[in-house]
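=== Per-residue structure ===
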Amino acid sequence: MTAELAEADRVYIRIVLSSTEPLPAREIARLMGRPVAEIYKLKQRVLKQLKAGLEDRDAVKNWLASV
C-alpha cells in the first residue's frame, strides 16, 4: 500500500514509525528539510490515503461489520 504513495509521504511514514515517541511537527520538518506547515498538510494527506487503502481491504470490512 505504501508503494503507491509519493516519496515525501513514504519518508514521513518512515520517520513517524521509526520513533519510539510521537515527534512534534517541527522535528519532522527539520528531519525532512521542509516547512512545518507542509508537515501538517502531509500528515493529513497520508492519514487520508492510508485510511482509504485500509477501508478497501476485505479483512478490515469484515472486522468493521463484526463490531
